[in-house]
Every structure is written in C-alpha cells, then in structure tokens.
C-alpha cells in the first residue's frame, strides 16, 4: 500500500542511498503515488517562485494556470491545440515535477515499488530475499515514456502480450512470467504520454478505459491484474476532438482536464518566441543583423496566414513557420556576405523572397487553392505583411519625393546581392532622402548595440572597427530604402517587375 509523505533521500548522492530493502526501510523513506509526488513538487515550486515551464513564453496567464490546477487536482490531462503550440514540449517538461530519483526493485521491468511490488518477478524476489532485496535508483527522465499514436498501434504495444520466447524457455503459458509488458505497465510510477490521441484506433482507445478509470490492466485474458500508478497525458488537435471527431466519448469522460493551448496573442510575443528558438549563432565568421521591421514582417506573415481564407485554419499555421522563415532570412543575408567577402551583413526585404522554401508544408491550403498556388500565396502574404508593418508608423504621403523620382523615369534594379552603396546610389538624386532614411532607420530599427566610430582600444582608434560600423549603417539604410520600395509597391504607388534574377522598381 502506498503511503503519502516526504522523500528525505531524493537529493542525497547516489553512493549514500540505500541499496537493499532493509536499509531503505531503516532510512525512513516513504513511498508516494506519482500524482501526489507531482502535486507536492508543484506546491514547492509555487511557494519558492520557481518557473514551472522555463522557456515557454506567452502562457503564464492562460495555459499554465490550467496545467497547475490539473496537477493540484491530480488529474490526467489532454493538451488540445493546433500544431506548433508547444504541446509536446510542455508534456516532456512535466518530468521536472518528478523527484530526482526513486527506488525500485532491482531488475524490475515496471519500476516496482520495493514496499508495494505488483509484478510476479518483484513479489517473488521480495518474498525470497526479504530485507536483502537489492534496490535500484531510477532517474526522472527514465520515468517518462511517449508514444506517437498511429493506426498500426496495437494493444500489445501499449498493454502487453504473451512472449513466446519465454514460453519456449520452459515457462508455462498459465504463468504470469510468460508476459511481455507494453509501454503502459513499463511506465508504472511515471508519466505516459500518447501524442495525437485521435489517431488511435477506436478499439485501442477502448483498451485505455480501465487504465484511466480503474488504474489496472489485463493482458490476454489473464486473471492477473496490475494496479498501476500512472499519470496519463495526451495531445490532440481540436478538429479531432469535436463530437464528429475520432476520440470515443467515454474516453473523453475519463480524462480529468483538457488544457487548451493557443498561438502567440501579440506580434511582439511571437517575435520573442522566434528569436528564442531560431538558429542564429552562425559559425561562418559572418555577423548578421536583422532589422526589427524585417522580424515584424516575418512574424506578421504567419499571423496573416492564420486568418487567411485560403489557408485551412483547422490545420493551423505552426510557430515553426516563423522560426524557419527567420532562419532563412538570416541565411540569405549570410550567403550574400560570404559571396561578397564581407564579415557583416544586414537582412533586407530582398531576403524575404526566399521564404517559400521554408514555408512550404507549414500552410495547408483549402481545396479550392490547391495546384501550385502555395508559393504565390506565401509571396502575397509577405507583401500584405510589408504593407501592415509600413502602415503602423508611416504613410505614402511622407515619401512624395521618392514617388516623383520614379514618376520622372527613375528606376532601381535589385538583385539582392549588390552592395548597400550600389543600391543606394540612385537615391542620391533625391534631395534630403538619405537624411530621411537615417531618421527612419532609428525609428524602424532601434539599435540594440552600436559600434561607435571613435571607439578606442588601448588608446588607439581601430580603423577596422570604424569601417565596419560605417558598413553596417550603410546596409541598414539600404534595408530601410528597399522596405519603402516594397511598401509603396503594396500601396500601388510604383511598379515592380521581375526580370529574371533582377527585380526592377519604376513608374
């Protein structure tokens, strides 16, 4: 029988921990159920002000309170949300709410509690050796098991099956020793997760009834019943969780709490999540600066996709789309610097043309939009996102001199590989435009770190540092100027024509 109480040995070094049943009993160790263990650790973390899910952003006031309430209520949980909402990541982080290590009967396949063994192997061992029963300590990560639900999953995978090899070794078919335990019994005294629960066949879902309600399993009609100590957690898509979905109703009834997740509620939060998860620390020797307005366009593209009638909203648009797109923007700027032999680069709107490869497969089009439209839709979303970010702070009227430049026959060709100075050269004909660009750069891309031209090292001005700062500033101005061209095109104030690898802006 499990007793509730403290676990005074959980933080002791492994060598000092009891290695036999007798020494474990003498140490004062008390067993707890898995849900009591998680509840007590949640209470301890809350009192200490420790974060329960470090690195998870935007859920502090919405999702995490739902999880905490479920844990305090000792519920099994189902995380319900669209793809890319951090469901699996949070499920795996539940192991942080387990003790560092717990004792089991050494050699047990199902983490038998030394004080309350449930398998035939552990019961026989304890009966024969008594206080000399060897004890093994199991870490928290080994107490989490996960299964991705697929149509080919069987009851044998989850619950267990008769092991014919054990039978061939001479063990009788009527003996419990001939059983091979599935993932659920092997998760005894731990957490078992089923990802995408609706994909399980209905008869397999029915097989979970006893586990959720009675906390036991029966294998192949054996009279043996295993009273398991489990925390069961699941994930599912909302579309599959409706009355017309693929989860049988009695199974829903047995799940204690359903936790609803969501996408970032603000653009700035989405940008923060993207920066946290993107691969930005490049090792090529090139330093890439991504202006804030480029970050905003990348995130806004995903946000627009989440409300677009051309995108299947039941499937969702994953946060992974923003992350992958952000990484590709950095990569194209990095590629440009490597080709030009530069050590610094600033991302430009021209880099956004490479978003389709990193967006494909992350948006699911409606049936009417099938047939090669995916890339064009992504480009349209980027153009609309550019217009949205522009309209936040600026208006076309502010750039009448630029519009007049093009109306008078001015043209600008963009390849995405030209230097910033080369790109800006045509605009030098517009009086006061460079100063306007400098003011806009400060507003659209507030510097987080500046390299002052007069920085000294050991009393000497470093020319390379001064030159680098000038190059970065020039590249920032070029990025802002190209952003203005794309925004004015989105407002139908100038034309944009692709000509092979060149994009030409003109009247």
Give a structural overview.
This protein has 507 residues and is an alpha/beta fold. The chain has 20 helices and 18 strands. The strands form 7 sheets. It has a 5-stranded parallel sheet. Strands 14-18-17 form a 3-stranded antiparallel sheet. Strands 2-3 form a two-stranded antiparallel sheet. Mean pLDDT is 86; it is low at 1-8 and 449-465.
Provide key terms for this protein:
alpha/beta; 507 residues
Q: How far from one another are the termini?
A: 83 Å
How many beta strands in the DSSP annotation? 18
Helical content stands at 25-40%
Main β-sheet, in a few words? 5 strands, parallel
Gist?
By secondary structure, this protein is of the alpha/beta class. 40% of the residues lie in helices and 14% in strands. The protein has a five-stranded parallel beta sheet.
List the helices and strands and how they pair.
Blueprint: H1 21-26, H2 34-48, H3 63-72, E1 77-80, H4 87-93, E2 101-105, H5 120-129, E3 135-139, E4 144-148, H6 155-158, E5 160-162, H7 164-168, E6 179-181, H8 183-186, E7 190-195, H9 202-206, H10 209-213, E8 216-217, E9 226-227, E10 230-236, H11 249-254, E11 257-260, H12 267-277, E12 287-289, H13 292-305, H14 319-340, E13 344-346, H15 355-359, H16 374-393, H17 400-407, E14 412-414, H18 420-424, H19 433-444, E15 456-457, E16 460-461, H20 463-490, E17 495-499, E18 502-506
Parallel strand pairs: 1-10, 1-11, 4-7, 7-10, 12-13
Antiparallel strand pairs: 2-3, 5-6, 8-9, 14-18, 15-16, 17-18
Helix pairs in contact: 12-13, 12-14, 13-14, 13-16, 16-20, 19-20
